[in-house]
Amino acid sequence: MKIVEYVKDSYNELVHKVSWPTAKDLTNSSVIVLIASLVLALVVWLMDLGFENLLTWIYKLLASL
Predict the structure, then answer these.
(1) Residue 5 in domain
(2) SS3 per residue for the chain
């Protein structure tokens, strides 16, 4: 009986007590996450490109010695 009571209480809380975000709020949050992800991916790509060029330069410098 405790399981049935738990499920009923959980349903009641989700339906009546939880404040769900609106579709507009969800859309705004999704856009923010998308932009932040793209910016972070761009930063990581630029760092990778920079390290690749730096290490290539160091290897060529060491190879010429």
Answers:
(1) no
(2) CHHHHHHHHHHHHHHHHCCCCCHHHHHHHHHHHHHHHHHHHHHHHHHHHHHHHHHHHHHHHHHCC
